[in-house]
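User: quick one
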Amino acid sequence: MLTPRAEDFPRWYQDVIAKAELADNGPVRGTMVIRPTGYAIWERMVDEMDARIKAAGSQNAYFPLFIPESYLRREAEHVEGFSPELAVVTHGGGKQLSEPVVVRPTSETVIGEFMAKWVSSYRDLPLLLNQWANVVRWELRPRVFLRTSEFLWQEGHTAHATEADARAYARRILHDVYEDFMVNILAIPVVVGRKTARERFAGATNTYTLEGMMGDGKALQMGTSHELGQNFAKAFQIEYSSREGGRELAWTTSWGSSTRMLGGMIMCHGDDNGLRVPPQAAAVQAVVTVVKDGDQVLATANKLRDALSDAGVRVILDDRVDTPFGRRAVDAELKGYPVRVEVGPRDLGQGNVTLVTRYNGTKTPLPLDQAVDAVTAALHTAQESLLTEARTRREENTAEVSTVDEAIEASGAGWARLPWSAVGVEGENKANQQGVTVRCLTREDGTVPDSEDEPGLVAYLARAY
Amino acid sequence: MLTPRAEDFPRWYQDVIAKAELADNGPVRGTMVIRPTGYAIWERMVDEMDARIKAAGSQNAYFPLFIPESYLRREAEHVEGFSPELAVVTHGGGKQLSEPVVVRPTSETVIGEFMAKWVSSYRDLPLLLNQWANVVRWELRPRVFLRTSEFLWQEGHTAHATEADARAYARRILHDVYEDFMVNILAIPVVVGRKTARERFAGATNTYTLEGMMGDGKALQMGTSHELGQNFAKAFQIEYSSREGGRELAWTTSWGSSTRMLGGMIMCHGDDNGLRVPPQAAAVQAVVTVVKDGDQVLATANKLRDALSDAGVRVILDDRVDTPFGRRAVDAELKGYPVRVEVGPRDLGQGNVTLVTRYNGTKTPLPLDQAVDAVTAALHTAQESLLTEARTRREENTAEVSTVDEAIEASGAGWARLPWSAVGVEGENKANQQGVTVRCLTREDGTVPDSEDEPGLVAYLARAY
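Assistant: Done. Structure below.
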């Protein structure tokens, strides 16, 4: 059914998105339609992320889609970075607008304007905001979930009294929200590090990133957190009176993660039979499948569904017995439901059902009265196994090298890891010319450096989506 | 602090939105910024609505913000209705677009296009979709929450095999989702009825509505549910092969409710001291206020906050003792927190705290160990009392009249109710010229008619937001 991954990974990706009914291309080039199966997984992601964002103290708000063009021009690097990607509204209500407005590509500028209004004293800081929204960045080479002209995301924007406070918060989000979510919910063992000056967000002084390894060995930037220094505070006059009575500029941060994470989950865990959704991220964790019709079978399947639901499992019943069983099994595999419990007359005659775990394809007959416990345990094991498998793959496909040339060569099949001192700006240029980028810098022990000038840093180089 | 409602209701509305920090005007005319206090209430609304929409069987999905201009033209009434309100993107990625795209004012057209792709057999019906999204309708006379150029909403879109199925579903949403939510969560006793032909949605064959009475006696349309007949099915070829093998056009519905409901909640329940948020809709149901500093006071307040939270109350602690108590009390009133528990050294010396209920301003001293039960009971009472109060006001301010002239006169201070046979198309024209509209038609017993030609119908006439 699906193109095998080894044959053509990008085509496999397209196939699985179409056949698992996750998304479609929209009519305007580069836009996408997120279908119910895909959107339900996104809702799970939003729930988990939103809880972590709130636990980190940020409050949700909503800022306008339309931003006056002049706002973007106030921060020089920012406008330079985003100008090529803007969608511009020139007409509204049947008339040409006196000033064109851009559809937000991100909201630092408009939120900066309101931070300046709302902040007057050190008592108003930190100001910790987040919004769930759509943004538009015109894409020349769109790919569903990974690069689309419109995508859904959360963008956090905070203002602080000191640089140290801003840095600590940008990193708190990086670790407590993003890393925790990606590792424990998406089962993606991201490498967390610092972007080089060249890879920084337009307008940032520091960009932190979380990089995931996909099934073909390429990298995907899964989320970023930025220190914006005082750049936007200057551009929008975000000032406060300090405890001592002076006027000070605030220090701001921004951080985002998007529907791109859906693409990352697909490409990290999917196999030749379709998706493998980690149970924590799954909208459907278990499906109870009626193999064949029959009063006892149907009644048992319904009871089992209810028992699983009572045990806190997100479960659905598949009783479409007029559709061949084989087709329904293939569909469940495609959609990556972590666990399937097959209830059929033959097994049931012996008091059994069959437990099928998606991540490893195992089929286990087991007594009906053990089914709930077995499903709960299988979900736990599946979550851990997917993470372990992805971590092992990442380690096996990360080559320790010592020169940029070796790194470029190794970036065909995976990542390369080498001393940042062996790369530098010149080496980064050379790699870029071959389509290889510095994904991030970390310290030797895996922690995140404060500067790219720290001695002993390690660089990860790879081809990326 | 606030302009009294009796003096200038629209100014009171603006004041309360500013001072309770619910929203600000955005920089592009007609847009709004929803601040954390306002957005937290919207999140409560979304949670409650979303649960009801899912219980009614609809699934969430996401369709693109940008719609090709040509899509809108396929349904003649639809394009005529929305053309004056469109925002048009003419440039993307630095180039002029070959076909301009509109920013969705609503999504019947683009969703119709995909329904046509996804529906092929009667087995695919009903197709029940919903999305949470932003939409843009250029507004000449914007007013925060009520009429904004961009707003947040849910829009449901469904396709059915028969007209009867479509009608039943449009009504299920009307009653089980909208009416239930508005009455039981927002405590707004809406009148549920049918729009006249003139007030129908552009492209609909039947429009159902829920009308709330605001504090000044005007009406606010709080939500609508539409039967679209086969209009969009024809325009987008939403066809299915029937059980008998023939090709049939589907019957579609759409239904929406928006951030406008926030405006309705403010204007229905607010008083001269600020908001009164019904406990079911409140993001903050109770605030534990530390009157003055002191070790025992702080420890007690923290314990009480935890106990209330454990009891399922959405509670915050106000321990900002460096801000004068009076100012914090005024702020809590402004924000409409349903219950305030004041913990101060004097009361506490006698083992007491003070319970303040926002809806009626009552202050009751009570023993600390009864506080949790008292808060829970007070929330229950406040919810019921706000609904009763709003229902009484609606009944008292609805005049039974018998002519259109009387209805126009009565519409200064409230609503008018009269036989639809005494209005008709001519009477509707006459009322419209005086700024009075037919809000809806109901049967004598309050149920929703199938047609405006049914005998014995009652018309509600009013001025409206």
